[in-house]
Amino acid sequence: MDMVSYDFKAAAELVAGDVRPRLLFGPDDVAVIRRGLESVRGRRLWRGFARRAQRVCRIVCEAENLTAGLAGVAGSEVKEAQTVLRFLRDLAAYGVLAKDEAAYEAVRRILNSCGEVSALERERGRLGIGYAGGGTLALAYDMVAPQMSPDERRTFCKWAEEEVVQVVWRQLDPKFYFGPGGNIAIVGLCNATMMALALHGDKYAKGDGVVLQRLMAMVEVAVGGALAPSGFPLEDTGYGTEVAAVLALPVECARRLGVDDVAARMPRYYKFGRAALKFIQPWGEWLVNTGDAGPTMGNREFVFGRIAAATNDPAVLWLWQTMRYNFGTVDPETLDQDIFREVALGHKRQTPPSVFSLLQGPQLAKAKRPTGRTAATAFVCGRRGLVSFRSGWRDDDTLLIFDGSQRSDGAQGHHHDSAGSFSLFALGEHFGIDAGRYNVTQPCHNVVLVNSEGYVDRDSWSQALCEGRLTEYAPQRFVDSAAADATPQYGGAVRKAERRVGLVKGPGAQPYVWVQDAINANDKWGMFDWQLHTAPENKIRTQRRGAVVTGLRHGNQLGVEMFLPLFPGQRNSRDAHRIVEVFDDVAHPNAITYLGFDDPQKIKEKVAEYPRPAAMVEHGPVYERPRLVIRYEGWNGRSLVLMVPRVKGTAAPRMKQLEGVPGSIALEITFAEVTDVLIVSFDHPVLQAGGVDERGGWCVVRRNNKTGKVMQRIVGESVL
């Protein structure tokens, strides 16, 4: 493939001769980039790229006080200055690729102002343009340096060494090693490292090889601290995926220059692409939220493009192109579509109009949607305790995310009380969601609340103090299952809180999900609230022991029904479990005071910023959404909930609770073609009901309705 090379030492000769540009591409690569844009897609990408660059150039040329804006002190121009800084690399690349003098001059103006910007920032104690934007400044300098005078280069290099590389290095080393997965520290580290790489071999820079080596050592630690061995980011989709994209720049550029090859020692870096793939919605477009952020991801085109090229993985290319983030749909500061509108590459495929996308030109047409043959449908991140199960890779397939809420001390700040929570997508609908940032505590997740009327919530935005534990992960052809122990996150309110989920697949029936809860409220009678947070604009119609949720996207439905243990002997005994109430309400973040949501009108105003309430699921956080609550009581919180998706207008399966051995719950679920017997147990491994006689913690047996023959059978070993 005719692409810019990122092999080790691919640009070493350019460094030795101080030839620029060299970080992202070299002078000889300009022709390579242009050839990669000769297709219809490539020409469309170039037009979008040129439109962005020219718009950024106009902002620079028309600004009256951009220096103050970059320093964050000129209110009217701060947002424009941030936009310029963010996309300065694209403007610089446009100057090189189009030989545009106006672009060169605009970039020089920004680079020449850096010293003055830093002086203004020091007066006000701000973090610093170098800490927050050193990477894009480094790339811009690399591309525009040949157009700068020797004095301009000396001045910039002196500022870059003193105000970016040295300052950030001293701030981070050695304390960075004790929190190497945190996003703020990683952003500063990567910006300083990119600047050090840009100055490496520059005749106008003093250069400090020891500092560069120290920075690269921290980059390696950051890759290990931010990404689990599975490749999944420990700060989840949102913060974590952004961090992975940020890390890709120093990792790739250092290899290209011949400074270091971190990825060769950290294979988890290359696994990030496939790990992220497992959390894309069944119909693509957005990553499923799993933590304290929305599912956004900047610079995806560079990290996924490079990983795909290195691993020859068309599915990761598809992931890059199916994702879309036209930020202007939500954020007022990103309404300029000349800058933020993504470029269409085909049906449901797009990419940002960036220099990073231009580098991937030859790969634009090589993306392939994953199938059951090319990508596994189950994934676990053992370090994070997070599971992804899906019935397939089609738009209408079912995706179940299950959270064990394991956390890393090296990536603190965004932990949630989410052990046992799940997200559920099926038939093109968002049926069960994670509400994202500001929704930290248990009432904000799809978990069971214990004696909720006395539940102490937190009104600030602060992370959870206890983690859970993923205790089981068992993907199988017929039923995928996983279990978690959430006991620590109940803060002493329970002696035990365990949950198991199963995704039932296979021919003959629509895939469905079951959720088994085993909770002991310290051997006391308890009230238990089983929760389902669903997408804004979904409709909930409650029933005697559950509800029907109707999706907003296609009108497809999810039947939710709860079953409790049958009390031996007299069903009306006061000792029997019973459903007390089924209701739906409107849920909000727990960080009420932090967000200023004490006034309900402020919540309405915040939601109104979105084009429609459902857009909160796509961009996060979800400030307001419907919530289903099934309230039941008993000496313990034992329950089995069935969630069965169905196409709009089709009949629900018949569900019947069977007489089983005491201490278990047995169901018969009859579809048009097949009948399943599902049994879960709590105290013993004897599973008997409906003609099924198995030994284990749970089982599902599927029979053909016409012949009565067993089609599928699975038995899980562990009892909750």
Task: Walk me through this protein's architecture.
- With 720 residues, the protein is of the alpha+beta class.
- The protein folds into three domains: 12-363, Alpha/alpha barrel (Glycosyltransferase); 378-477 and 488-501 and 508-642, Beta-galactosidase, Chain A, domain 5, CATH 2.70.98.70; 653-720.
- It contains 22 helices and 26 strands.
- Strands 9-10-11-12-19-16-15-14 form an eight-stranded antiparallel β-sheet, with no helix packed on it. Strands 3-4-5-6-7 form a five-stranded antiparallel β-sheet, with no helix packed on it. A five-stranded antiparallel β-sheet has the order 20-21-22-25-26, with no helix packed on it.
- Helix 15 (268-277) crosses helix 16 (300-311).
- The longest helix is centred in the first third of the chain and has 23 residues, at 40-62.
